[in-house]
Design a protein that fits this description.
2 domains; 14% strand; Rossmann fold
Length: 315
């Protein structure tokens, strides 16, 4: 049950065993959520810096809550308060954070590979909170953790990811995580957003929405990543919604017990109708809650914590 990584940069590099270790620790931490006092002293005395150089709500708050639940001190910097707006390089910013004796950096950045770059020049742990369209490892971990809670096992389960795949770091991380855990993944959407070369990832690519929904055990909706697109990949938002938005009619194609997921932020009425986002099939808010437990596990393990100690204490 030992954990030997200083950093969490990608899901691609994790083994199935490592993913399951994170989930085991997250399960133990989630047991504390029902207590009147939810904080535990696992990272007391540690300082964690949130360096978010792209906008974020759920991820940034999720990491802040997770760190504080572990009794760490948290300092958050965003793109407006960072000296990068004055021309300081990412390297200098990160090295100054380390020189201030921070114990870990959580970074979100628009440049793919930036967390890997920092992990090679810093002695302290680096956690990737999203790097461009490359990966978003903790989002995939919390998504799969939620799927396991609801489905029991992912081996042979059919998961459909619908929407803007080509520009989505969430999709890439989830593809790696879900396939490592044995799921059969189908990507669906317009051909401009779901190119055939994604089959190289070991998944199925389809542009037939009904067929992709009918046998799915879960469907994950993704928003259109306007901020990463340099040109239009479909005629209009309205036409995308008419062709691929999940509405009541299309949701009727799903199995009665299929679950609906979304990493957020939701564009209601675009990729999903409000009634479906708030329906009993939706686990969107469960994903947010599970993000705390999963991120607690990641912070604890990358700080050198013992998986056995947490699991034994929770039993």
């Amino acid at each position: 049950m030992s954990w030997n990584r200083k950093d969490l940069i990608t899901i691609e590099e994790l083994s199935k065993d490592e993913i399951e270790k994170i989930f085991a620790v997250a399960t133990a931490f989630k047991k504390t959520f029902g207590r009147s006092v939810k904080k535990i002293p696992a990272l007391r005395g540690k300082t964690i810096v949130n360096l978010f150089l792209e906008p974020s709500t759920r991820t940034r708050m999720g990491f802040e809550v997770a760190a504080k639940r572990l009794s760490a001190d948290v300092i958050s910097l965003d793109m407006n308060s960072s000296s990068t707006t004055k021309g300081e390089t990412l390297r200098d910013t990160a090295q100054n954070v380390q020189a201030l004796k921070a114990d870990m950096i959580i970074i979100r950045h628009s440049a793919p590979g930036s967390p890997l770059y920092l992990s090679k020049i810093l002695d302290i742990p680096v956690v990737n909170a999203g790097d461009g369209a490359h990966e978003h490892p903790t989002q995939a971990l919390l998504d799969c953790f939620t799927l396991l809670e609801k489905l029991g096992n992912l081996k042979g389960k059919k998961i459909t990811i619908l929407g803007d795949i080509i520009f989505s770091r969430v999709a890439r991380s989830n593809i790696w995580a879900m396939t490592k855990l044995g799921a059969e993944v189908t990507l669906v959407g317009p051909s401009t957003l779901v190119p055939h070369w994604f089959t190289n990832f070991g998944v199925k690519v389809s542009h037939d929405l009904q067929a992709s929904l009918e046998d799915a055990d879960a469907v994950m909706l993704l928003r259109i990543q306007h901020e990463r697109q340099t040109s239009s990949h479909f005629p209009s938002i309205g036409e995308y919604t008419n062709m691929f938005g999940l509405n009541k009619t299309r949701a009727s194609w799903l199995k009665p017990n299929a679950i609906i997921m979304h990493p957020g932020p939701i564009n209601r009425g675009v990729e999903i109708d409000s009634d479906l986002a708030d329906s009993e099939q939706s686990v969107i808010l469960d994903q947010v809650t599970n993000g705390i437990a999963v991120r607690m596990a990641v912070l604890y393990l990358c700080s050198g914590g013992s998986p056995e100690a947490v699991i034994k204490h929770s039993n």
